[in-house]
Amino acid sequence: MDATATVTPFSTLIRTASHEQHTEAETSTFMSDLLGGRLGVDAYTRYTEQLWFVYRALEEGAEVLRDDPVAGPFIQPELMRSTELERDLAHLRGVDWREGLEPLPATAAYAARVAECARTWPAGYIAHHYTRYLGDLSGGQIIRDKAEKTWGFERKGDGVRFYVFEEITNPAAFKRGYRELLDAVNADDLEKQRIIEECKRAFALNTAVFRELGDVFPLSA
Fold first, then answer.
1. Average pLDDT over residues 89-111
2. pLDDT > 50? residue 4
3. Residue 2: predicted pLDDT
4. How far is CA 24 from CA 19, 137, 200, 216, in A?
5. pLDDT for position 5
6. Are 128 and 15 in contact (CB under 8 A)?
7. 99 phi and psi, to 5 degrees?
8. CB-based contacts of 150, cutoff 8 Å, min separation 6
9. 121 pLDDT higher than 50
10. Is 136:88 a contact under the CB 8 Å cutoff?
11. 114: three-class secondary structure by DSSP
12. Of the candidates 135, 130, 122, the residue with the CA atom closest to the CA atom of residue 186
């Protein structure tokens, strides 16, 4: 491996190596239309439903990996989102929100991959943990702000609870600490490269969900 790989922080490597895939996810047609206010609250609701399936897999995996020497340091209770997602879904779909709730095929594949990594490859699970939670603390806040303004949700209230990290008072400091965990990850250079590849895969899985959501909610001509 290139000598620079041993001196460049892993948090920098993983961010730069997955930049293309990250950008593709962020600029998907569905997300562009959602953030542009061209889709209704029903599209936002369907998106939130899909998130629930992914985070359920992530957080069921977290329970298993709490004491794992590789993934364990990343399992932090202040990041957990399932309870907030369920509160949002109760607001968006009503008290019987679980009735008829089904993942899109791409969502099912995404959640299955997260669960597989949690079961068989803790280092790979880190890739999914990183792409989701650091994204929630960063770009996710743009979605929250847009949802509040577009569909009239109470500021940081039900409907956007998923994006509100009440136990993280300083997101910038928290993200710095998270990147330090990445830099100190218990993995050799070959394993780090595999984590990077899994990170790219995670973004691709997310993009596939956006693509299917775009098929469900095409803009009128």
1. 97
2. no
3. 52
4. 9, 19, 11, 19
5. 45
6. no
7. -65, 125
8. 37, 41
9. yes
10. no
11. helix
12. 122
